[in-house]
Write a structure and sequence with these properties.
three-stranded antiparallel sheet, alpha/beta, Aspartate Aminotransferase, domain 1, PyrdxlP-dep_Trfase_small, about 400 residues, Aspartate Aminotransferase, domain 2, transaminase activity, pyridoxal phosphate binding, 12 strands, EC 2.6.1.-, Aminotransferase, seven-stranded mixed sheet
Length: about 400
């Protein structure tokens, strides 16, 4: 097995070298070898891809649609995205010039951020937040500005946003808003978004709106900030959560033409073009399967209610999720452990895998994230084990 020449050991991108691996994935890998463990760690839908969507992928292969697609995506999918967004947000996006099909929402986030950021720029991220944002900002040479929302019901307030902008001035290039939010499941109301939009509109900055969970809300309507700030919003979404298509890796960027022109360059440099079978499947999902998420959403809501009830009986306070498929639970005050220590102990002693809250930035310490994108049987078993463990340590 080859070993790197010692003269090259320090020849790496300094920004990459200073970035730690994903705390979510690293912890999941750390506990995965524990025999009999039930994991509620990864946001991986346990449902199958709808049959008509799978058949569209198969058909594309049988019809030999195997050549490079247009770099921004096949026309059928871009039109489907535009129609979907018109229906859901009220914003008209031109399929040809204002939409990029990406390899998952992850690539959409990477291509968008690296296209807009320069060294010295600052990016505001309300935390706790999906940890992927942090290293991409770092790799782009920009500075991360976090706003801890844990004292405000995990919602960014206009007052805290204004204070951050006053403190950092014109160096703020963007704010990332992810809602429904990973890891808390909190959704923003129309009034909350409008209050933030009123402030953002006064500044020369982008909004990166990560709305990947927008089809999974419970009893509330999802509003896109793109409808309020269409000229400043870079909208990111995808099919991974709504149609259980995580392995197909289909996401997209929707934004004004001038930005898409630049971001499509980075997209092309990184991936050339998305996979054809995945794109034809996604086109089918958006054009003929907008109701596919309904039974999944109903199942998630029942699981949410079950877990919330069990956790509260265990003495673990939560912010009731209004979307996504996560619950962010506070570690009982009687347990004197960090979130990593508690999650590690829970994995070893109770054989239940949860994600330490510290993986999600400021405001996350003292909490753990549980994903209910798991089977009912696994969830029930995990709750029983957690309850027994917490009762045992309380004795």
């Amino acid at each position: 097995m080859p070993q790197l020449d010692s003269r090259l050991s320090e020849v790496v991108n300094e920004n990459i070298d200073s970035v730690a691996p994903s705390g979510i994935r690293a912890f999941d890998q750390k506990i995965s070898s524990i025999p009999g463990i039930v994991k509620l760690t990864i946001g991986e839908p346990d449902f199958d891809v709808p049959e008509h969507v799978k058949q569209a992928a198969i058909k594309s292969i049988e019809e030999n649609k195997s050549h490079y697609s247009a770099q921004k995506g096949i026309p059928e999918l871009r039109s489907g995205i535009a129609n979907y967004l018109k229906k859901r947000t009220g914003v008209d996006y031109d399929p040809e010039s204002e939409i990029i099909v990406t390899v998952g929402a992850t690539e959409a986030i990477f291509s968008a951020l690296t296209s807009m950021l320069n060294p010295g720029d600052k990016v505001i991220v309300p935390t706790p937040a999906f940890a992927l944002y942090f290293p991409i900002i770092k790799v782009a040479g920009a500075e991360l500005i976090t706003i801890d929302t844990s004292d405000d019901g995990f919602v960014l307030t206009p007052e805290k946003l204004q204070a951050a902008l006053d403190e950092n001035g014109d160096s703020v290039k963007a704010i990332i808003l992810n809602y429904p939010t990973n890891p808390t499941g909190v959704e923003y109301s129309k009034e909350q978004l409008q209050a933030l939009a009123d402030i953002i509109s006064q500044h020369q900055m982008f909004v990166l709106a990560d709305e990947i969970y927008c089809e999974l809300t419970y009893g509330v309507k999802h509003y896109s900030i793109a409808s309020m700030l269409p000229g400043q919003t870079i909208l990111v979404n995808g099919l991974s959560k709504s149609h259980a298509m995580t392995g197909y890796r289909v996401g997209y960027i929707a934004a004004p033409k001038d930005f898409v022109t630049e971001a499509s360059k980075m997209h092309a440099f990184v991936v050339t073009a998305p996979s054809n079978p995945a794109q034809y499947a996604a086109a089918e999902a958006l054009n003929n399967g907008l109701d596919d998420a309904i039974p999944m959403r109903q199942a998630y809501e029942k699981r949410r209610d079950y877990i919330a009830d069990r956790l509260e009986k265990m003495g673990m306070a939560i912010a009731m999720p209004q979307g996504a498929f996560y619950i962010f639970a506070k570690i009982p005050d009687t347990i004197d452990e960090t979130s990593v220590e508690f999650a590690t102990t829970l994995a070893r002693e109770a054989k239940v895998g949860v994600t330490p809250g510290s993986a999600f930035g400021p405001g996350g310490e003292g909490y753990v994230r549980l994903s209910y994108a798991a089977s009912d049987e696994d969830i029930q078993l995990a709750m029983n084990r957690m309850s027994e463990y917490l009762l045992s340590v309380a004795e």
